[in-house]
C-alpha cells in the first residue's frame, strides 16, 4: 500500500471516520470506494487534500491572522460582510503554494490521469469543509465546485478558488449563525475524475421522500448534462420515485412515479482547453424524453438502498451517467438531515383561544386552524396573482386549481359540500378548508387578515383578524387497537405519502376518477380514437401531454397505474380497495376530448355511470385501459394488495356482465388472489345482498349515494341540505340489513362514506351493527379510531359473523 501523504490522501485510503481530516464529503467518497465498490456502487476515483494542507497554505502566506483581523472588523461593524468576504478571498487567491503541497497535488493528478490512461484528465474539484473540534459539521452546499478542470496549472487555480470559497458571503453567514469559530473551520479539496455526464445525464437521489419523510421510497431527479443545474435548481428535472421493498424482486418494476420535467437547458463542457462549462438549450427531443430508462431508474434506486443500509440512515446522493459508456456513478453521498429528524408518532390538533367576530360559516374540512391574508381569485389562470401562503378564496375549484391550492395555507369556497373537489383535495393536502360559504368572494376582500377555523367540528368559521390559537401534538403510538378495521379514504396520489405515519388498516376507498382527473386529464376514449378527434384544441393539448408515449393509450395506463401505486405503497401490505372510475357523464365530458364521447343527460347522478359503462360499446375500450392499469399495478409493479371495487352496480345480471368484461381484459376474480368488491350504494344492493355476495368478495357502503337514493334527496342540492341525513332511521336500517345479510353469505362489509368522520355517534352505530371496517378521511383518522375503540370497550358488542 502506498505511503500516505500528509497533504494528499487517495479516496481508497479514507473512511467515514476521517471527517476531521478531509471533511464530510470526501470522507464519504472514501467510505464508498473502500466499502461499497464490491456491492456494485461505482464512485469515480480521486484524491483529497487534507485540512492540514489548508492550514499550511494559510501559514505559508501569513494569512491566518490577517483573515481573523478582517472578520473581526466585520463583526465590529467597521466593514460590511461583502467587503470582508471579498478581502479574504482576494488574500487566498493571491497566495502561492508551498512547494511540498503543490508537488503532492501535481503528482497525485498525474497518477489519476495515468490510471485513466490519458494525460490532463478532466476532473471535478470539490470543496469539503471540516472543523477541528466539530467532526459532525458538514457545511453542505456552502462552498464551491469546479467542473471540467484540465491540466496542472488549471487544477492549482481551481484548488485556490476552493480555499477562497470558504469565505463566500453565504459561508461566513452560515458559520456565524451556527456559532462556529471561523478559525477552527478548514477545507479539504476533493479532486475526482469527471464522469462524461455532459453527454449523458445527472441528478440527485434521496433514499427517502423529501416532502413527507416516507421511508419506503427512493426519490430520483434527472436532467441532461452536468449535475450542477439540478443541484442549484436552475432546471426543472424529471422526477422518479421507486418503492424500495420490491427492488429485491428482479421481475417487478416498482416505479411509482415518473414525472417529465421541462429540462430547458443543460450544462456541458465549455471548450477543449478545459476549466469551463456552459449552459445550452436542450432540443425538443430531449425535453420530450425521460432522461433515465426504467432499468436505469431501478439500478439507481438499488444503489440508494445499498448506500442507505451501509450508512444506517436516509441518504442524500448525487449521481451521474457517463454518456460514452452508459455507466451510472455515485459522485456524492451525505446523510439526509430534514425528514429523518422529523418527529415520529405525532399528529397535530388545534384549539382557538380567542378570535375576532364571525364573518362567515360553512362546512368544515379538516380540523386545523390557519391565519393569514385573503387572496381572492376568479380563475385558476390568475395563478400569478396568488401570494404564497395566503388564504385562497374562490367560488369553486377543479383540478386546474391544484397547483394554487398546494401553495395556500387554507381554502374557502362559495359553493360545494364535503364531497366537492375543494374538500377532498384540501383534506389530502392537509389544509383547513371551509366549503359552501355562499358569498365568501363578496364578503371578504384581498389582503384582509382572517382566521380559518376548522377545529370546532362540522361547522367551519371564518373570523375577522388573526386569532389566538394553540396546536397540540397528539401521539400516534398510543392509539388503542380495535377489532373493527379503521382505514383511509384517498384520491390524490401527490398527497398520499403525507399520511404514511397513520397506523391505518389499509385504504378502504381509492378514487380512480380523481387520479384520472387530477393527473391524467384526458378522456380514455379520446386516446383510443385520437386520430378521429375533431376538437383541434383538445387534440393539441392531448398530444402535448402524451408526447413521451408513442402509443397514446400507454399514457393513460402508465399514469393511472403509477398514480394508484403511490396510494398502494403507503398501505402495503394492508389492503387497498380501488374503485373503478365513477364519473358521471357531465364529469367525463369535462376531461380533454370527452365531449365527443359522452351523451347529455338531464340527471347524470342516476344515469350512465358505474357498472353500466364498463360493458357498454360506448366505453368498453376505455374500461379496458382501466383494467390494464390495475393489471400492471398488481402484476408488474407488485402491489397485489390492491382490491378492485365496482361502483353503482344495479343488478346481479349487470354484475355478471362486468365480471365477464374484466376477465376478458385480464382481471379474473380469484386469479392471483384478486378480490373484487361492489359498492353498497343502491337499495337493490341491500335487497339482493345474497345474490351480490355470490358474485363479489365484499361490499363497501357508500353512505352518500345510499342516503340519496333511500331518502330521495339530491346530495348536492343546497336547499335540501337539512334533509340529507346519513343517520336517518331508514338509512341505518339499510346499512344494518346489508351488514347482517352479507355476513350470513360470507362477504365482508365496510363503509367509506363521510359520516363516520363527522359524527362519532354514527361510528358507534356501525360498530354496534358489526361492520368489518370503517374508512375515513386521513384528517379524522385519530378521532374515529378512538371513537371505535370507545364503542368496542363500552359493550357495543359486534354481531357475530
Task: Please outline the helices and strands.
Blueprint: E1 8-10, H1 19-35, E2 46-49, H2 51-60, H3 64-75, H4 81-93, H5 99-115, E3 123-131, E4 145-149, H6 152-164, H7 169-178, E5 185-193, E6 201-206, E7 217-224, H8 228-232, E8 238-243, E9 255-259, E10 265-269, E11 277-281, H9 284-288, H10 294-311, E12 315-321, E13 328-335, E14 346-354, E15 358-365, E16 369-376, E17 391-394, H11 402-405, E18 410-413, H12 421-429, E19 433-435, H13 440-443, E20 449-453, E21 459-464, E22 468-475, E23 485-490, H14 493-496, E24 507-511, H15 512-520, H16 524-528, H17 536-545, H18 552-571, E25 576-579, H19 585-589, H20 611-614, H21 620-636, E26 642-646, H22 652-664, E27 676-680, H23 683-687, H24 689-695, E28 698-701, H25 703-711, H26 729-744, E29 748-751, H27 755-758, H28 760-769, E30 773-776, H29 781-793
Helix pairs in contact: 3-4, 4-6, 15-18, 18-21, 25-26, 28-29
Amino acid at each position: 500500500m502506498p505511503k500516505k501523504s500528509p497533504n494528499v490522501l487517495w479516496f481508497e485510503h479514507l473512511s467515514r471516520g476521517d471527517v476531521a481530516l478531509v471533511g464530510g464529503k470526501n470522507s464519504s467518497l472514501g467510505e464508498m470506494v473502500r466499502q461499497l465498490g464490491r456491492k456494485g456502487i461505482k464512485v469515480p476515483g480521486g484524491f483529497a487534500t487534507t485540512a492540514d494542507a489548508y492550514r499550511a497554505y494559510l501559514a505559508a502566506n501569513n494569512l491566518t491572522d490577517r483573515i481573523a483581523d478582517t472578520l473581526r472588523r466585520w463583526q465590529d461593524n467597521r466593514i460590511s460582510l461583502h467587503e470582508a468576504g471579498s478581502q479574504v478571498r482576494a488574500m487566498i487567491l493571491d497566495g502561492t503554494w508551498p512547494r511540498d503541497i503543490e508537488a503532492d497535488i501535481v503528482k497525485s493528478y498525474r497518477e489519476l490521469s495515468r490510471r485513466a490512461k490519458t494525460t490532463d484528465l478532466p476532473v471535478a474539484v470539490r470543496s469539503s469543509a471540516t472543523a477541528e473540534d466539530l467532526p459532525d459539521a458538514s457545511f453542505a452546499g456552502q462552498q464551491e465546485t469546479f467542473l471540467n478542470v484540465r491540466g496542472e496549472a488549471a487544477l492549482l487555480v481551481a484548488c485556490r478558488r476552493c480555499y477562497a470559497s470558504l469565505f463566500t458571503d453565504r459561508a461566513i453567514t452560515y458559520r456565524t449563525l451556527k456559532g462556529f469559530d471561523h478559525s477552527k473551520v478548514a477545507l479539504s479539496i476533493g479532486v475526482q475524475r469527471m464522469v462524461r455526464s455532459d453527454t449523458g445525464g445527472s441528478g440527485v437521489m434521496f433514499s427517502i421522500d423529501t416532502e413527507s419523510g416516507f421511508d419506503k421510497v427512493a426519490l430520483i431527479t434527472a436532467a441532461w448534462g452536468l449535475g450542477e443545474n439540478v443541484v442549484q435548481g436552475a432546471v426543472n428535472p424529471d422526477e422518479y420515485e421507486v418503492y424500495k421493498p420490491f427492488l429485491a424482486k428482479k421481475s417487478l418494476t416498482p416505479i411509482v412515479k415518473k414525472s417529465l420535467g421541462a429540462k430547458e437547458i443543460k450544462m456541458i463542457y465549455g471548450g477543449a482547453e478545459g476549466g469551463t462549462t456552459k449552459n445550452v438549450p436542450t432540443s425538443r427531443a430531449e425535453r420530450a424524453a425521460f432522461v433515465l430508462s426504467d432499468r436505469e431508474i431501478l439500478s439507481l434506486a438499488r444503489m440508494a438502498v445499498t448506500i442507505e443500509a451501509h450508512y444506517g440512515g436516509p441518504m442524500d446522493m448525487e449521481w451521474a451517467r457517463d454518456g460514452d459508456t452508459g455507466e451510472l456513478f455515485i459522485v456524492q453521498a451525505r446523510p439526509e438531515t430534514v425528514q429523518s429528524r422529523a418527529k415520529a408518532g405525532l399528529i397535530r390538533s388545534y384549539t382557538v383561544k380567542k378570535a375576532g367576530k364571525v364573518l362567515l360559516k360553512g362546512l368544515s374540512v379538516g380540523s386545523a386552524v390557519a391565519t393569514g391574508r385573503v387572496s381572492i381569485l376568479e380563475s385558476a389562470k390568475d395563478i400569478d396573482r396568488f401570494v404564497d401562503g395566503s388564504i385562497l378564496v374562490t367560488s369553486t375549484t377543479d383540478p386546474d386549481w391544484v397547483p394554487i391550492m398546494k401553495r395556500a395555507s387554507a381554502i374557502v369556497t362559495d359553493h360545494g359540500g364535503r364531497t366537492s373537489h375543494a374538500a377532498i383535495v384540501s383534506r389530502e393536502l392537509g389544509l383547513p378548508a371551509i366549503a359552501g360559504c355562499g358569498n365568501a368572494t363578496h364578503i371578504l376582500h384581498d389582503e384582509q387578515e382572517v382566521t380559518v377555523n376548522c377545529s370546532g367540528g362540522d361547522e367551519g368559521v371564518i373570523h375577522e383578524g388573526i386569532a389566538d390559537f394553540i396546536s397540540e401534538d397528539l401521539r400516534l403510538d398510543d392509539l388503542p387497537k380495535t377489532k373493527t378495521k379503521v382505514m383511509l379514504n384517498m384520491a390524490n396520489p401527490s398527497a398520499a405519502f403525507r399520511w404514511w405515519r397513520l397506523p391505518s388498516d389499509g385504504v378502504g376507498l381509492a378514487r380512480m376518477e380523481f387520479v384520472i382527473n387530477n393527473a391524467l386529464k384526458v378522456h380514455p376514449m379520446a386516446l383510443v380514437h385520437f386520430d378521429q378527434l375533431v376538437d383541434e384544441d383538445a387534440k393539441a393539448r392531448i398530444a402535448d401531454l402524451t408526447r413521451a408515449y408513442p402509443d397514446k393509450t400507454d399514457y393513460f395506463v402508465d399514469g393511472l397505474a403509477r398514480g394508484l401505486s403511490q396510494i398502494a405503497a403507503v398501505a402495503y401490505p394492508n389492503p387497498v380497495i380501488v374503485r373503478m372510475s365513477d364519473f358521471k357523464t357531465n364529469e367525463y365530458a369535462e376531461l380533454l376530448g370527452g365531449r365527443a364521447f359522452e351523451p347529455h343527460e338531464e340527471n347524470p347522478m342516476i344515469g350512465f355511470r358505474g357498472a353500466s359503462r364498463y360493458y357498454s360499446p360506448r366505453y368498453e375500450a376505455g374500461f379496458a385501459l382501466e383494467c390494464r392499469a390495475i393489471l400492471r399495478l398488481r402484476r408488474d409493479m407488485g402491489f397485489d394488495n390492491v382490491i378492485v371495487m365496482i361502483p353503482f352496480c344495479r343488478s346481479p345480471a349487470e354484475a355478471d356482465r362486468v365480471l365477464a368484461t374484466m376477465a376478458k381484459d385480464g382481471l379474473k376474480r380469484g386469479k392471483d388472489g384478486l378480490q373484487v368488491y361492489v359498492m353498497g350504494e343502491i337499495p337493490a344492493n341491500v335487497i339482493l345482498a345474497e345474490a351480490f355476495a355470490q358474485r363479489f368478495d365484499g361490499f363497501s357502503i357508500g353512505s352518500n349515494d345510499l342516503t340519496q337514493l333511500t331518502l330521495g334527496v339530491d346530495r348536492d342540492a343546497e336547499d335540501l341540505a337539512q334533509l340529507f341525513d346519513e343517520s336517518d332511521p331508514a338509512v341505518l336500517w339499510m346499512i344494518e340489513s346489508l351488514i347482517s345479510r352479507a355476513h350470513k353469505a360470507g362477504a365482508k362489509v365496510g363503509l367509506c362514506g363521510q359520516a363516520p368522520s363527522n359524527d362519532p355517534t354514527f361510528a358507534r352505530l356501525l360498530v354496534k351493527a358489526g361492520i368489518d371496517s370503517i374508512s375515513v378521511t386521513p384528517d379524522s383518522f385519530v378521532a374515529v379510531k378512538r371513537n371505535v375503540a370507545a364503542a368496542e370497550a363500552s359493550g357495543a358488542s359486534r354481531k357475530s359473523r
